[in-house]
Amino acid sequence: MSEFKLNAERRGSTGTGHSRQLRAEKLVPAQLYQRNEENINLQVEEKDLDKIIETAGTSAIISLMIDGEEKNVLIREYQRHPFKNQYLHVDFLGVKMDELLRVSVPVVLLNRDDIKLQPSVLMQQLEEVEIETLPTNIPQQVELDVQNMQYGDTFIVDDIEELKDDKYTILTDLEEVVCTLVEPEEEIIEDEVEDVDAADVEVIGEEDDEDEESEEE
């Protein structure tokens, strides 16, 4: 049984209008996808879903309680409104605890705000790594400590110690770069000098002198 639990209710109605009504009631339209079984339309409490996503993320097994029946699931995908603090939809994926599963696990760079070599710029090229493992072995995240990196240092997928275990099969290329530390580039600020045709330059006093000469003549 998972330490993360979420209650859900079946919903009979679907469609845009019904989904809007659910969101107005602080409920999130959801769907459970299951292998060799019918998909189930659901609704979950927005506050409960938000708490689960913050604590479990998208790589932890969740015990989804549907009308008293427990199903082991992963969060397959969720959508948020681009402007409002609101979930639009969430998809769950049913899993069998004895079957291998392919998942993407977040890569977290530890001490990225405490890198000893300063000034420096840390560039993270890879946010997730794909692995295959049993559902009970899925890590919430994998980590790399970047505090002691030097200019030009690079971490690759093969440097992630947590995944060097027989229970994991790494599907991402082991040589793929996760992050690199580089020296910041100096900004060269040049004064912009506009090319101006000499004929376009106004000479103050020239016309006045000519006018004065004409009057004298």
UniProtKB/TrEMBL annotation:
What InterPro entries is this protein classified in? Rbsml_bL25/Gln-tRNA_synth_N (IPR020056), Ribosomal_bL25/Gln-tRNA_synth (IPR011035), Ribosomal_bL25_b-dom (IPR020057), Ribosomal_bL25_C (IPR037121), Ribosomal_bL25_long (IPR001021), Ribosomal_L25_dom (IPR029751), Ribosomal_uL5_bac-type (IPR020930)
Q: Gene3D superfamilies recorded for this chain? A: Ribosomal protein L25, beta domain (2.170.120.20), Ribosomal Protein L25, Chain P (2.40.240.10)
Q: Output the GO biological process annotations, alphabetical, semicolon-separated.
A: translation
By its UniProt entry, which Pfam families does this protein fall under? Answer: Ribosomal_L25p, Ribosomal_TL5_C
Described function: This is one of the proteins that binds to the 5S RNA in the ribosome where it forms part of the central protuberance.
Q: What is this protein called?
A: Large ribosomal subunit protein bL25
What are the residue boundaries of the Large ribosomal subunit protein bL25 beta domain, all occurrences included?
Answer: 102-184
The record's note on quaternary structure and interaction partners says:
Part of the 50S ribosomal subunit; part of the 5S rRNA/L5/L18/L25 subcomplex. Contacts the 5S rRNA. Binds to the 5S rRNA independently of L5 and L18.
Q: Where does this protein have compositionally biased stretches of type Basic and acidic residues? A: 1-12
Q: Which organism is it from?
A: Helcococcus kunzii ATCC 51366
Q: Which CDD domains match?
A: Ribosomal_L25_TL5_CTC
* Sequence intervals crossing the membrane: none
All copies of domain Large ribosomal subunit protein bL25 L25, residue ranges:
6-92
Q: Show the SUPFAM superfamilies listed in the entry.
A: Ribosomal protein L25-like
Family listed: Belongs to the bacterial ribosomal protein bL25 family. CTC subfamily.
Q: Which UniProt keywords apply?
A: Ribonucleoprotein, Ribosomal protein, RNA-binding, rRNA-binding
Record GO terms (molecular function): 5S rRNA binding; structural constituent of ribosome
Region annotation (Disordered) maps to: 1-21, 196-217
What GO cellular component is one of the record's annotations?
cytosolic large ribosomal subunit
